[in-house]
Amino acid sequence: MNAVVNNVARQAPTPSSAAHGADNAGAAAKVDGADLALDITQMGLDIAGIFDPTPISDGASGLISLFRGDFVGAGISALSMVPYVGDAAKLGKLGRYAETLAKAVDAAKSSPEVAKAIGPAMEKLRDAVGAVPLDKLPDSLRNAIEPLKTKLDDFARVGVNQVSSTVGRNHIIWTQNAAGETIGAKAVLNETFSVARSSTEQAAQGAARGRGVADDVGGHIIGHRFAPNQGAKNMFPQNGQFNNSAYRKLENEWGDWINKKGGSVEVEVNFVGNPSRPDKVEVNYKLIDSAGAEVDTIAKIFDNKTGQTFNRQYFN
C-alpha cells in the first residue's frame, strides 16, 4: 500500500538523495522551534493589527520585537499603529513572512519536534489569516497575504502523529498534523460490521459538520461499516451530496469486494487543502483476492462539493 502523506518511500536512498536528506536534517537541527514560534506569533499579531481598530495587536507585536532586540521591527509595529500610514508600513514585514513560513514548513517536515513546537502558533496564525476578507483588501495587501495562506496549508499537511485502531480483522492508521487534525488515513479492510452509531459518534459527526459550510455533513474517512465508532479522528466536514452519492458508492464497492469476493481492500485517503475542511479528497485503493493476489489498483480525486461521481468497477 502507498505511504501516507509525508512518510518516506521504502527504498534505498541514492548518494545524492541521502546527502539531501542529511542536509535537511542538519537544517532542521539548527532551527530553534521556540524562536520560530515567536516569529509566527508576531505574524499573527501583525495580520490581526491590519483589521484591529485599536493599537493592541500592533503594540503586542512591538513589545515582542523589543524583547528580542529587533528595534527595526518594533519601529514598524509602532508606525503601524498610525491610521493609513500603518498598513503601508506593515507591508515591509508581510513581504518577508512567506519566506519565514517556507522555512517553518521545511523544518517541520524534517523534524516532528519543530512541528509540534510551532504548531500552536501556526494554528493561531491560520485563524488570523482565515479571518482576513481577502476580496475586500487592496491589491498590495492581498498579494502579500495570499502566499502566507498557501504556506499555512502546506504546514497543515505535515504529519507529526499517527493513531491506529484494530477493529476485528480491519486495521486503520490515521495521520494527524501538529494541530491534531487528521490529514489522511490508510487501512487494510477484511470485514464489515453492522453496528449502531454511539452517542459519542453522533456528537463527533455534529462537530465535524459544524466546522464545514452549508450542506456539509460529518463524513467518515473510513466508512463506519468498516471502522465503527472511532470518533473525531475519522471525521471531516464533507459535502452532503458527495457523502451520500460518490463516496457511498466507493464504500459499497469495498464492502461488496469483501463480502462477495472474500477478498480484502487496502485503502489510502489523503486530504488536499486545509484539513479543517479539505478542498479535495484523494483516494487510492487496491483490491486483493482471497488468495492474497492484487487484482486491481484504483485512484480517484474528488472535490469536496456537490456533483461528484464514482463509477463502480465491479458489482454494478
UniProtKB/TrEMBL annotation:
Nuclease in keyword set: yes
Top-level lineage group: Bacteria
Presence of keyword Hydrolase: yes
Gene3D superfamilies: Extracellular Endonuclease, subunit A
Residue stretches of biased makeup (Polar residues): 1-17
Sorted UniProt keywords: Endonuclease, Hydrolase, Nuclease
Residue segments, region Disordered: 1-22
One function term, GO molecular function aspect: endonuclease activity
Record-annotated membrane-spanning stretches: none
Type VII secretion system protein EssD-like domain boundaries: 184-286
Designated name of the protein: DNA/RNA non-specific endonuclease
Organism of provenance: Ottowia flava
